[in-house]
Amino acid sequence: MSKKVVLAEKPSVGRDLARVLGANQKGHGYFEGKEYIVTWGLGHLVTHADPEHYGEQYKNWRLEELPMLPKRLDLVVIKQTSRQFHSVKKVLNRKDVSEIIIATDAGREGELVARWILVKAHVNKPVKRLWISSVTDKAIKDGFKKLKDGKQYENLYAAAEARAEADWYVGINGTRALTTKHNAQLSCGRVQTPTLAMLADREKAIQSFVPKPFETVQVKTQDGLALRWFDEKSGDERIFDAKKAKEIQAKLNGSQLTITNVQAKTKRVPAPHLYDLTELQREANKRFGYSAKETLASLQRLYEQHKAVTYPRTDSRFLSSDLVETLSERLQAIDVQPFRKTVATAKKQGLSHAKKQMVNDAKVSDHHALIPTEQAVAASAMSDKEYKLYQLIVRRFLANFFPPSEFEQTTVEAKANEELLRTKGERLITPGWRAEDLDESGEEAESKLPQLTKGDNKAIANVSLTQGKTSPPPRFNEGSLLTAMEKPAQFMAEKDAAISKTLAEAGGIGTVATRADIIEKLFSSFLIEKKGKELYVTSKAKQLLELVPEELKSAALTAEWEQRLERIVQGKEKKAAFIADMKEYAKSVVGQVKADTTTFRHDNKTGEKCPECGKFLLEVNGKKGKMRVCQDRECGYRKNIAMTTNARCPKCKKKLELRGQGEGQVFACVCGHREKKAQFEERRKHSKNKNVSKREVNNYMKKQNKEDDFANSALAEQLAKLGLNKKD
C-alpha cells in the first residue's frame, strides 16, 4: 500500500499532525502510520549558498570582486540541521511514498521552506497543500478533507524565491561593498534601509524644530461653564501674538456672553476591527512595552503550542464567510473566567451583528484576522506574556459581537464683545460594546455639558491665559515604527500622490511576518538604540545613510518591489524579469558605493585597545546594554561591559544593570544604588523572594552573552542574509 508524506515546518506541529492522522510509530525524525508518514523541518533546512561557493575569489571580502552576480543561486543544506534534512530526504524518496502533502505554515515563507526541501531532496512526486489557519484537531481534520493541488501554489513559491534571491543580490552586494570600502560593519537591505531612513528623517525634523510660544484664552461663567476662545477664520485656539492675547483677555473680562449655536450630533462608534499581527504588536507595545519580536514569539506559542489562537502572521482584520458557522464554538471555547459574563451576553446578542461587523471576504487574502480557536485553553498553561496577549485577542473578538456605542456630541458656540468662544461635550446614549468592559483604549467616553439653549446669556466670572509651545513630532517607539512601516506615505516629508498610491497598494514596506525581524536587525547592527520607549538613530546610522545610494533609502522603491512580488503571486509577472532587475540594481548599488568619496568615521572610540589586534575598541549600546567591540570588522572581538538584567533594585524596583567583568562585577541602578554581584547574590539568598538564585543569575548572564555575541557578529549578519540563523 502506498503512503503519503506530510511535511510540517516544525517538530511541534509535526507531532500534532501525526497524532490526528494516527501516525504513532516513531522513527528517526518522523512518525509513521498506515496511510501517512509525518516529518518536519526545523524552520529552513535548506538555504542559498554562501558567496564563496561561487568562487575562491569571494572567500575574502574584497571591493574589487564586487558585484557578485551568479547566473543562478544554488541551494545548500544547512550544516547545523543536516541530520534532520537527510532523515526527511530518506522518507520523501521511499519507494512506497506516492504523494507529498505540504503542511508548512500557510504563507509565502512556509511555502519556501517546503519547496526548497523538495528541490534539494530531488523529489518529483505529486504534491498536495494543507492550508489551515489554526492547528486544533478539528482544523487539521477539516483541512485534510479539503487538500489543495500543489500546482495552485506554484506562483506563491516563485514569489517567495524571488524575495529570497532579491535579498541575496541586493543585500549581500550592498553590505559587502559598504563594509569593505569603509572597513566597518555596515549593512543595508531592501527594507531595513528605508526603515532606518524614516527614523533618521524624524530625528532631523525633531532637531531642526523651533518651538513657537502661544497662548490660549479660557473663560469661565459664574455658573461654571468653561469655554475657549477661537479664531473665526482658522478655527485655531492658539494665539501666537502675546499682545493680542492680552487684548482679548481685557475685552472679555467682566463681560457677558450669549450662546449663539448649540449643535448636537449622534455619533456611533463601532467596536474596533479584529486584530491583525501589526495592530496587535502596536497594542502590546503601547500597553505592556513588548517589542514586536516578543509579541510575535509569544503569539507563535499561542498558535502552535497552546492552539489557542489562529495563524498569527496575518495582515487581515476581517473573517471570511465560511468561518461564521464556527463562531458559536469559539464563544464556547472562551466561556471561562474572566470572560464568562460577557460570553453569556454575546450569545444572547446572536450572530447577526457579529457577521456584519467581522465578515468581509474581499478583505481577507491568505489568512483571516487573529481570533481565538474552537479549542478551550487553561490560563494556567500560559506564561504571563502569552495570557496578556490572549486576553487582548479574546476581548477584541467579543467586542465585535456587540452593537456600536452611541453618543450625543454637542458643540456650543458663544459670543462676547465680538469675540468667539466654544466648548464641546459628549453624552452617552447607548453604551453598546463599551458596556462589557471591552474598551482597551482606557479613554473617557463622556464629558457632560449642562442643558444650554441658543440665546442664553451668562456672566463671565474669570478669563485666564495659558501659555504653551508648539511641539516637535514625537520620536518613534516600536509601536509607531510598525505603523510607519505599514503606512509610510503618512510619514514622508514630501507628499507625492503616485508614491502614496504605490505604498498603499503594496501594504507598506516589509510584510507583517518580517517587520519585527527588521527592527531587531537595526538594534543588533547598532543602527538604533532605545532610551525608555523611544528609538534613536546612532551616529553609525546617520553616516550609513550618507553612504548608501539615495534610491535604496526610498520607501517607494521597496514598496514597488513588494508590489511586483504580489504580481508574481497573482501570475501577472514572471520571477525571471524581477530577478534580472534586481541584479541590475545590485550592480548599480555597488558602482555608486565604489565611486563615492565620502569617508566613514568612528566617533565612539574608547581609550581601550582590543586585546586581539591592538586597535581601539568602540563603545556601542546593544538592546541589552553597553558593549565594547573592535572597530576592525575582520577581528570581531567584543565584550559586554553593562547589561540590563531582570533583577530589580531593592530601592526603586527598576531593572538593575550589571557592569564590569569577572569578580569586580557590580549591579547598579539609575537611582544611585550600587552593590557587588557577590553582595547581590547573598541578599537574594536570604530574601523571602528566592526567585533568582546564583545559578540562575549566572545562567542568565551566559545566555545574554551568547545571544549578544551571536546576534551582533559580522558572521551572524551574513547568516541572517542567507537565512541560516532563521528563528521560529
UniProtKB/TrEMBL annotation:
- Region Interaction with DNA, residue ranges: 187-192
Active-site residues are Y311 (o-(5'-phospho-dna)-tyrosine intermediate)
Gene source species: Shouchella xiaoxiensis
The keyword Isomerase is annotated on this UniProt entry: yes
Q: Which class of enzymes does this protein belong to?
A: isomerase
Q: Which UniProt keywords apply?
A: DNA-binding, Isomerase, Magnesium, Metal-binding, Topoisomerase
**Listed GO MF terms:** DNA topoisomerase type I (single strand cut, ATP-independent) activity
Q: Which domain of life, per UniProt?
A: Bacteria
What's this protein's name?
DNA topoisomerase 3
Q: Which cofactor does it need?
A: Mg(2+)
Marked site (Interaction with DNA) residue numbers: W61, W168, R176, R313
Q: What is its EC number?
A: 5.6.2.1
Q: Where are the transmembrane segments?
A: none
Q: Which residues form the Topo IA-type catalytic domain?
A: 153-590
Family membership: Belongs to the type IA topoisomerase family.
